[in-house]
Write a structure and sequence with these properties.
By secondary structure, the chain is mainly α. The chain has helices at about 5-20, 25-35, 35-45, 45-65, 75-90, 95-105, 110-130, 135-155, 160-165, 165-175. Helix 1 (about 5-20) crosses helix 2 and helix 6 packs across helix 7 (about 110-130). It has one domain: Tetracycline Repressor, domain 2 (Orthogonal Bundle). The protein starts with a helix and ends with a helix. The model has no long low-confidence stretch (mean pLDDT about 95).
């Protein structure tokens, strides 16, 4: 992939995390990276193509940033996962990109919907390996995505910590029970 394609993907990710899939145009991206909108189309013929590429890249990067669940205590594994979500909302005021896309799922092109579902499935699989329980994986994933929405919607990023900081402790207590 070219440097310019990466810059376009970076700009698209920023805009999706802030405004959603329909909250920007190729003209906006072109302005962000200092090119003509026709050049954006050269790299990504359609917005669906762009959406697929940026969602796939986001999924890969997010999962690559996490510890290997094998041999990592489940509460530590989960807390590092929680901190990955936290950094987006607290440090940057941004949503999980695929969470943002998930809120718009009905209005997305089918191929972008598929990438969002892949993000969710792969995250649930990861959390299941961390926690040893698929139902708990779904609960924790939903809590984190919901905490991001509540924190952003309230304009209080610190609300994410209020909602989630004790989850790893609760997991440890539940495992010992």
């Amino acid at each position: 992939m070219s440097d310019m394609a990466d810059k376009i993907l970076d700009a698209a990710e920023d805009r999706i995390r802030a405004f959603g899939f329909h909250g920007f145009s190729f003209r906006d991206l072109a302005s962000d990276v200092g090119i003509k909108s026709a050049s954006v189309h050269y790299h990504f013929p359609s917005k669906a193509d762009l959406g697929v590429r940026v969602a796939r890249r986001y999924t890969e990067r997010f999962l690559a940033s996490l510890p290997d669940p094998a041999g990592t205590p489940h509460n530590e594994c989960f807390d590092r996962y929680r901190l990955a979500f936290r950094s987006a909302i607290v440090d940057g005021g941004r949503m999980c990109m695929c969470g943002m896309l998930g809120a718009e799922i009905d209005g997305l092109p089918e191929e972008v919907r598929a990438e969002v579902r892949t993000f969710v499935d792969r995250n649930i699989d990861y959390l299941e390996r961390c926690l040893g329980d698929r139902d708990r994986a779904w609960q924790m994933f939903a809590l984190l995505e919901g905490a991001m929405i509540a924190a952003r919607g309230s304009g209080r990023p610190e609300a994410f910590d209020l909602a989630t900081q004790h989850l790893a402790t609760a997991l440890t207590a539940a495992a010992g029970a």
